[in-house]
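Format notes (please read before filing issues)

Several people have asked whether sequences and structure tokens are stored in separate files. They are not. Every record keeps both together, in the order shown below: the sequence lines, then the token lines. Line labels are part of the format and must not be stripped during preprocessing.
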Amino acid sequence: MFKMKVFLFLVISFSLSSFSQNYYLIEKPENTDFYFWKNLLEKNGIVLTHYFPPAGGILVKEGWEYLNFKDIEGILGTKVYLDSPFGQDKERLFKTREGELLWEAHRHLLYPKKYKEEIFAKPLINDYFIPQKEREEEFFGECSTTYLKYSGSEYLLKSVSVNVILPESNGAIDPSTENWSSARETSVSNEIVEGLNQLANFYNLTTSIKPSFIYHYYFGRTDTRAQTSYEPISRPANPSYSCSTGEGLWACQILNNLGYSAYSGYTKAYEFNGDTRIADGTKWVFTIFVVDSLNDTDGQFSDGFFAYAWLGGPWVVMTYDNDGWGISNMNLAIRHETSHIFYALDEYSDSGCTCTEVSGYINYQNQNCENSCSSNLDCIMRGAGSLVCSYTKGQIGWGDQDGDTIPDPIDINPETTLTPYTPDPTTETNLTYNGSASIQKRTNNNLYGYQCDINVLNISNVQYRINGGSWQNATPTDGSFDSPNENFTFQTGNLSPGTYTIEARAIDELGQVDTTPASDTVTIQCTPPSCATNPNPSNGATGVSTTPTLTWSSVSGASSYDVYFGTSSNPPYVTNVGTASYSPGTLNPNTTYYWKIVPKNSCGSASGCSVWSFTTGSSSSCLPDLGDVNENGTITSFDGSLVLMYIVGTIGLSTSQQCKADVNTSSNITSIDATYILQCSVGLCNGLPTNFKTSCQNHGNCP
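Then the structure lines:
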């Protein structure tokens, strides 16, 4: 039980710098997916502090920070309000309960009450409990996927999902003595947002990773999933990590309603939280149960508990009144209990704290404990304190041992690997490199969690340089540097012959740089390739097809080949090809052709390369139709006349007609060919060349 102590506080609501901040209500465009919109905002550098899906959120800016509305309104037509929207804008927001809660929370932050209730209550001591987590004593290699999912609050940096559950008794087992109202639900939401906003404001390191929150509400008044057979406030809290007694009775029943009945014990909560975090794309998650106690005489459970948390999660439990703290001071309780969720220890003397006890991802001592330790500050871990001491900051992940404004848990440089270039040496001058960049993880020394090593940062850039020159940006393989592990590529540009040292370094989103860049040494040799060998057709070949494909053996170091081809013994240049083959098209039959291949690369061309030759045979495509010069399917005296006119230069013949006019396949068209055609036309086939006689027979001219 708690030791009774009476406190009297006068809390000025404009403390914690609330008066120096601007709060902008950001309304999501209608008919736009919330998470698509949220991600688009964040890709444009706009991170809200409080998100209320599917309605929008609240952007918190320091008073001196300038906000260009157009930067935000240009993103899908997002609406921005410095003051609370009214009229049609308010009506549009109020179409959803989340939109109404967003509007109310924004107004609550804009216009806080000048004075809060006086506190006549027990201090927040004996208000955290250590979960009975089942984990190995040591890890070898990577933490399991399950343990990573259950590690929901290792340190309070970046985005946090918050499930807010207000149980409602349906009277099935216990008499229903409490009934939530919409107005009091709103009050709870406002206080939670205010408390988390105040907690985030205590963070004073690198601002881009300041905590932000995304809220999910489960109100038992309207949502049957948050209803229970029990009346929670009438029962003991008995935080025993069991579904069979105390808080476990109604909490586990609600988690079953939410779809987690297949899991045993408090694993239900870790699965629920983990699924929320995955769906939101956040780094951390926890749940807040707020039990209605309006009609209860003391605002406490029957065993005296009223506000507490499981150290490291999965949840916080509070009553509506929190003993004598009152609803208007729930913000003070929520920031204290949330710090427990992120492993902060109590500092009250009566809590039994000691100076040297440690907690957190990076073990920080509890030297602000009231029991004669080295520090004595009015920290929030003593209740309604006005600051967060350095020891609490260290325990929740905000420590900065080296003073570089980067929180300790993520104060570690990324690493880079670079695939060595092959072959080495090489004759290529524009080298393509590939590699990978990865965020590294500091060892998780937390005594109370699953000890999974986790870093919430992403790679933001990779740079390379040549021989110690200026750094240049590499290209992300997937199009953007935005995850903990990234592949990259780059080209060096054309380099002269010589030996080069190529270096690459990864950079994370906070500007931490790999101080030991990955490197590769490569030598560029600039030597022209040798001449090609193994010509096909072979040199001097005869009877070659009139539609040949010329090939040769690929030459090492050659990037392309100049082709020389023609009927001259010194053939002319015709083209450059990238592979070891060339098709010259349809050639004349019975003709000698000459060709030469000159391999080349960026260093020059091969020299002294031989000229090869081959001779084509008869065109097999003409044989069936020899003599059919006018190509009409018959052989007549007119075909002979065409040949005679061609010989004297009266007419011209196409390549295919010339092929069919050369009936003796001599590669020359003469009067003899005309005579043979005239003989065929009148059926005089004796003495005709064999191929032409066959054509005459096929055309019905000869028996």
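For reference, the curators noted about this record: Residues 1-19, 136-141 have pLDDT under 50 and may be disordered. The domain at 541-616 is CATH 2.60.40.10 (Immunoglobulin-like).
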